[in-house]
């Protein structure tokens, strides 16, 4: 799980990323109310009838393995005298996915899906909830900006030397009398030659292995792979000008890809980029 944190009204709040969903620390939020008894604060909130109803509805909307039988027992007891429910009990009895209980002195505690965490924050303090939402939105905006920058870097790297590579194919491999369809087929073949040299499979083979992905293999490539991809396009253009057959070119390009990847993985420049 990827972890980060935000500061809400002077209080640090940890956030975990699990399966592309954010889970916010209820333990950190509870410190705003009672820093020495966060577990009790969370347990008191979970034990209310309103909270049990809310948690049950959330789980039924998002969790197909939610234990409705156990939930019914808990719902009937909620709000009665002496009823106490901890986050660990809720998770174990109902097979809930909206809460995560992590052990450990540092980074441990109870985490909840952001929908649930905002509800808990509202119970703690209306003003604290507003601060939490504001800081969470700021974090997501920053992450989106970074992702957009990363996407632009990836696409720019993927296009570096494309014109050189395309011109070399046009001048040396595409006879003038071929129609546009045939010329495009040759371009695709050359692209796959580089794909095989770098990724070990063609674009079609990648799509067949990844039917759930909307992009292509180059969209999913790492920064290191995109750097090498750019280099291979330039080198392949030179090899085409030398009139080397594709069988020789793919062998050379594969050797170059392996050598450059080893170098990049041991260096700091691409990591910095």
What order do the helices and strands come in, and which of them pair?
Layout: E1 2-8, E2 11-18, E3 21-25, H1 26-30, H2 38-46, H3 49-62, H4 68-77, H5 87-94, E4 99-102, E5 109-113, H6 114-124, H7 126-159, H8 162-172, H9 180-199, H10 203-209, H11 223-241, H12 246-265, H13 269-272
Antiparallel strand pairs: 1-2, 2-3, 3-5, 4-5
Short description:
By secondary structure, the protein is of the alpha+beta class. It has helices spanning 26-30, 38-46, 49-62, 68-77, 87-94, 114-124, 126-159, 162-172, 180-199, 203-209, 223-241, 246-265, 269-272; strands at 2-8, 11-18, 21-25, 99-102, 109-113.
Structural class: alpha+beta
Give the biggest sheet.
5 strands, antiparallel
Low-confidence stretches: none
Oligomer: single chain
User: Topology as H/E string?
Assistant: EEEHHHHHEEHHHHHHHH
Got a strand count? 5
Write down the Rg. Answer: 27 Å
Domain KilA-N: 4-139
InterPro entries: KilA/APSES_HTH, KilA_N
Protein name: KilA-N domain-containing protein
Organism: Dyadobacter luticola
Task: List its traits.
273 residues; 2 domains; five-stranded antiparallel β-sheet; 13 helices; KilA_N; KilA/APSES_HTH; KilA-N domain-containing protein
Please give a structural write-up:
It is a single chain. With 273 residues, the chain is of the alpha+beta class. The protein folds into 2 domains: 2-140, no CATH class; 160-272, no CATH class. 63% of the residues lie in helices and 11% in strands. It has 13 helices and 5 strands. The protein has helices at 26-30, 38-46, 49-62, 68-77, 87-94, 114-124, 126-159, 162-172, 180-199, 203-209, 223-241, 246-265, 269-272, and strands spanning 2-8, 11-18, 21-25, 99-102, 109-113. It has a 5-stranded antiparallel β-sheet with strand order 1-2-3-5-4. Helix 6 packs antiparallel against helix 7, helix 8 (162-172) packs parallel to helix 11 and helix 9 (180-199) crosses helix 12. The longest helix is centred in the middle third of the chain and has 34 residues, at 126-159. It starts with a strand and ends with a helix. The mean pLDDT is 82. This is KilA-N domain-containing protein. Residues 4-139 form the KilA-N domain.
């Amino acid at each position: 799980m990827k972890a980060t944190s935000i500061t809400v009204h002077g209080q640090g709040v940890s956030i975990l990323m699990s399966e592309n969903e954010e889970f916010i620390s209820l333990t950190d939020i509870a410190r705003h109310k009672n820093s020495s008894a966060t577990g009790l604060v969370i347990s008191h909130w979970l034990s209310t009838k309103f909270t049990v109803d809310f948690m049950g509805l959330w789980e039924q909307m998002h969790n197909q393995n939610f234990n409705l039988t156990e939930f019914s027992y808990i719902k009937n007891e909620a709000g009665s005298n002496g009823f106490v429910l901890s986050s660990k009990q809720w998770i174990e009895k109902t097979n809930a996915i909206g809460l995560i209980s992590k052990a450990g002195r540092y980074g441990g505690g109870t985490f909840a899906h952001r929908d649930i965490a905002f509800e808990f924050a509202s119970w703690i303090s209306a003003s604290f909830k507003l601060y939490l939402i504001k800081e969470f939105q700021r974090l997501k905006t920053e992450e989106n900006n970074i992702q957009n920058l990363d996407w632009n870097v990836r696409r720019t790297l993927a296009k570096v030397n494309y014109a050189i590579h395309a011109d070399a194919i046009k001048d040396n491999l595409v006879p003038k009398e071929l129609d546009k369809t045939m010329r495009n087929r040759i371009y695709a073949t050359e692209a796959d030659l580089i794909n095989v040299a770098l990724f070990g499979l063609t674009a079609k083979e990648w799509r067949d292995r990844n039917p759930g992905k909307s992009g292509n293999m180059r969209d999913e490539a790492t920064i290191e792979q995109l750097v090498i991809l750019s280099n291979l396009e330039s080198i392949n253009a030179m090899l085409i000008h030398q009139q080397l057959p594709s069988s020789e070119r793919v062998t050379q390009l594969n050797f170059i890809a392996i050598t450059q990847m080893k170098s990049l993985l041991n260096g700091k420049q691409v990591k910095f980029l």
